[in-house]
Amino acid sequence: MSASWKQLSLQILLLLVSCRHINTKTPGPTAPPLIPIDQLPTDVRSVALNGESHTEKVELLNPVNLTLECTWTGNQDKLANITGLWRKDGEEVKNSNQTVPMENDQYNLKRVFSIVNEEDLGSYTCEFGSKAKIDFVLAAPQIGDVRDKPIVSYLGDFVVITCKMEETKPEPSTWYWYKANGTDKEQIIAAEEPLRYEIKNEERNTKLVVSSLVEADAGLYFCGAVYAISTSMSQVELKVISFYEPLKPFVAIVIAVIVLVAIILLYEKSQSKKNSTAAENGTTDQTNTLTQGETNGHGESSSMRQRKV
Amino acid sequence: MPPAAKSKLGYTPPDGGWGWVVVFGAFISIGFSYAFPKSLTIYFKEIQEYFSVSYSEIAWLSSVMLASMYAGGPVSSVLVNRYGSRPVVMVGGILVSTGMILASFGKTIMHLYLCVGLIGGFGLAFNLQPSLTIIGTYFQIKRPLANGLAMTGSPVVLFTLAPLNQWLFDNFGWRGSFLILGGIVLHCCIAGALMRPVNKHAQPKPKAEPAGCNGEAAEKVASSEANAQSDKLLSKENEDDSQSQGCLETFIDLSLFKHRGFLIYLVGNVVLFFGFFAPVVFLAPYAKHQGIDEYSAAFLLSIFALTDMFIRPITGILGNTKWVRPRIQYFFSFAVFYNGVCHLVCPLLPGYSGKVVYAVFFGLAFGMLSALLFEVLMDLVGAHRFSSAVGLVTIIECGPVLLGPPLSGALVDIYGDYKYMYYACGVFMLVPGIYFFIMHYYNYKKLDEELKQDVAAELRTCEEAVQLKMIRDGKTKHETDG
């Protein structure tokens, strides 16, 4: 508990500091409205485990006092007591080491965590000795529809990059866009110079339109779905190429086609010249095909009957 | 006994030799015609985002392309009748290429509709018709096999284009890909270059075997008569062509609408095309609807395409056998009927393995029908009128082809389930199947009757010729004697 109080006071301090310099280039939303810990809504997640390990995903939108409950029924040794432990992101939570008695053939671990901001999210694990553990992965809704291949566009053209939050997940309160600058992320403000960016936000999706592309526009772009608890990011890579890139294979193919067509037509011309000079050979060949045709044929002459249909 | 519609050819098709090269050319041409519109769907999502249009607006692109491909049929027929297959296919290839190149510079979605949809579709129409027509001129006896092989182009080219398009898209975006596709589609020009017009004049006079006439003299007379007749036939046809009842008749053969076989084919096809494409379009969504994951659903389509690919040449071979060839219309009716049965049974097969079984059987059915689709038309109207016939058929089929998938989509939306749509498609194919069986039974009977009448007529002319010769010989003998 004291750890979360310390965190909270740190938060307040940071908030006061950041209020002084509103730096538009800092990534992340404005700080969440400050609610005292005991007025946070509460939520409970429980997992019962029979085996050795389990991972539970917990989707959070707003700051919450989250109670995590672990129940383990899988102990074959039937020890009377077992050591219980909580970890956050692998590191032991202070003062969480306790002895867990067996009740009704199971062991129970329960703890309340104040999840207030992005740092509080992560992986919380309850461990039963070294025999079993349950992971709770706390995260804001993640953007599922991620494009793994880069978007390719052309110099001078415009490009539309979209991010979408699935229907099954809750809507973000807003969307932000960032461009990678080295290892940092720079937020893209549409109204700022250069006026080449346009951001269109609808509840579930967002579009970034970059016009009059130049080579410097290539790189990683991030869209952030903003929730009260944190911002979920998804990245897209943009490649900008010149029109000569596809032109090269195109010209190669066209030349190949022209050459092939020329070869075919010239071959045919030379063949027909041969045929006209050796006309007799031609007719004997034709008779051979004819007799062949007739033996395969169906006995009727093909040109005799005049069918009026 | 094949129906005698091909008696009007006036020459003997080579049934081989350069014909197989032409089949290869037709393979490529037909492949592009059918597979190209389908493979473009990979770009739709990106284009949709780029132009900020809705899904239905981008789906219109496919529809416009398909519509102009079918509407361009008669134009294509007219040109083929006039100039032959080769120039039309080459122009078609250049048209599609131009359309794609112009589209790569497109600034609005309307621009894409015009370039890819209208110009591209027209160009593809100029590829499809002539390829089918030229097979009819090169092949007679082995024609079902040639048709089956040429129609295999569609699944094979689709199989190649799909991953190629994906690779192009990943590397060049949609604009660059359209440009390069404009180059790739020029291979249709190569296909066109291979379509050498068949040599009609180097054929010797066909040996005639008049039924029932015996005796050398009679044969000689008959054979010279036959030659005279065949020459007369050719010249008569040319006369007919020039003495037409107006401008239109010289270009396209509208008298086909009085052709019994053609009408049967047309009516049946219009109904069956309502349920032809929709099951393919909705196979993956149906699978996903039942909880199957995206990759397995896509795999269903691959299974379908593979079975389709293999059954088409096999159908061609089967169609060529002496048991099937004479009654090939029944084979086609069976294929249509079998399609219908497949769709009706599909919703009854549970789970993923049920879908796999359906994909296999549907692939077989679809391939069988596609391989025979144009062969039976050739069989009914003959190679001479095939060009006009296929033009008329495609423009009339335009309606059901365009309306089929949206209507099926509407069915899905109304009922919220795909199975009613499959039942409907099944009925749309079952009924024409039965209709074809009945009508072709009647048609074959009529054709046999007409054949008997013709044979009787020939016998009479033969006997008259023999009598005439005997009288003449008698006279000369009399003169020499006297």
TrEMBL record, chain A:
Task: Outline the extent of the Ig-like domain.
Answer: 32-126, 141-239
SMART domains the record matches: IG
UniProt keywords (A-Z) are: Disulfide bond, Glycoprotein, Immunoglobulin domain, Membrane, Signal, Transmembrane, Transmembrane helix
Q: Where is this region: Disordered?
A: 275-309
* Highest taxon of source: Eukaryota
Q: PROSITE patterns recorded for this chain?
A: IG_LIKE (PS50835), PROKAR_LIPOPROTEIN (PS51257)
Location in or out of the cell: Membrane
**Signal sequence bounds:** 1-24
GO terms for cellular component: membrane
InterPro entries linked: Cell_adhesion_signaling, Ig-like_dom, Ig-like_dom_sf, Ig-like_fold, Ig_sub, Immunoglobulin_dom
**How does it sit in the bilayer?**
Single-pass type I membrane protein
Q: Which CDD domains match?
A: Ig (cd00096)
Q: Where are the transmembrane segments?
A: 249-267
Write down what this protein is called: Ig-like domain-containing protein
Report the source organism: Champsocephalus gunnari (Mackerel icefish)
TrEMBL record, chain B:
What are the protein's UniProt keywords?
Answer: Cell membrane, Membrane, Symport, Transmembrane, Transmembrane helix, Transport
**Which Pfam families does the record match to this protein?**
MFS_1
Q: Where is the Major facilitator superfamily (MFS) profile domain?
A: 19-444
Q: Where are the transmembrane segments?
A: 16-36, 58-80, 87-105, 111-128, 149-168, 174-195, 262-284, 296-318, 330-350, 356-377, 420-442
Protein family membership: Belongs to the major facilitator superfamily. Monocarboxylate porter (TC 2.A.1.13) family.
Q: Which PANTHER family match?
A: MAJOR FACILITATOR SUPERFAMILY (MFS) PROFILE DOMAIN-CONTAINING PROTEIN, MONOCARBOXYLATE TRANSPORTER
Protein name, UniProt field? Major facilitator superfamily (MFS) profile domain-containing protein
